[in-house]
Amino acid sequence: QQQQQQHSSKREHDSSTDIVNHSDASDTVVMFFYGGAWSSGDKSTYTLVGRTLALAGRTAVIANYTLFPKGNIKDMVEDVFSAILWVADQFPRRHIIVSGHSAGAHLSVLTVLLAHRAVTLQSGRLQPRGHDFGADTVQRALAAVQRVVGLAGVYDISQHYAHETWRGVEYVSPMARTMLGHSHFLFSSASWVVRQLTNVSALPHFTLLHGTNDKTVPHAASELLASRLAECGAACSLHLLPGMGHTELVMTLMYGPDNVATRSVLARLLEDCAGD
User: Fold this and answer.
1) Is residue 248 within 8 Å of residue 211, measured between CB atoms?
2) Which stretches of the chain score pLDDT less than 70?
3) Is the dihedral of CA 17, 18, 22, 27 positive or negative?
């Protein structure tokens, strides 16, 4: 069963979500944000990820977000948070797992951390771009987020820019422009934002998965974020998957739960779901 819904956005782009297996039997909704170097991709390509989650008995939500050059990191954070808020409102009393692959993992982790940082400020407001999410709205969305799962994500923009430079693709890659240039690399790095938090006890559990054969985003990215989360006392589990590459990790989630490799990744993605 697949439905298409619209969640609010102030920009002219496809901000729709696909709901795969709207199951009343599951108390967990898994959101998935795809990767594509912040500049390409569409939810329709990842229908099989939703199907795998659906066959595992979860309600799956695959969401679009603004892509570069139509938008930048602030637009993307606004879109991801809007989608989380929409799911929290559509599925009250459900636990939400916010997950993503590559750029989608970056946006998932960064958005949740920025939202938690916002609630520790005096105003409690999240204002990534033009939209102003009030304190009550931010807290309502975050209260539903049980876990955040990053698959092969970029979590420190300066670290990844150094890797892009080593590969000789730093000018071809849209990353630096998406992040609004070098001066905004810190704001766009989950590894930095987590150190700005004053109440890590309110954070959801973070699960990071990364292949040891990932040449696009080396697993040092997940290791760095895991260490930063641990330093702050936040709950985090890191899973390094031997021999797995960058694209292979997300492709594994498309094979269905009967596949051995898929079951292994799926178990880590869905681990410790309350009430399941």
Assistant:
1) yes
2) 1-16, 20-25, 121-131, 272-276
3) negative
Q: What is the CA radius of gyration of the chain?
A: 17
The model's pTM is 0.92
The pLDDT value given to residue 135: 82
Any idea of the CA torsion for 134, 136, 138, 142, to the nearest 10 degrees? 180
- What span, in angstroms and rounded, lies between the C-alpha atoms of 171 and 145? 36
Cα separation, 151 vs 6, whole angstroms: 25
pLDDT score of 221: 98
User: Which residues are bridge partners to 216 per DSSP?
Assistant: none
If DSSP states are collapsed to H, E and C, what string results for 23-40?
A: CCCCCEEEEEECCCCCCC
**Is residue 85 within 8 Å of residue 141, measured between CB atoms?**
yes
Q: How many residues does the chain have?
A: 276
What is the rounded distance in angstroms from the CA atom of residue 7 to the CA atom of residue 16? Answer: 6
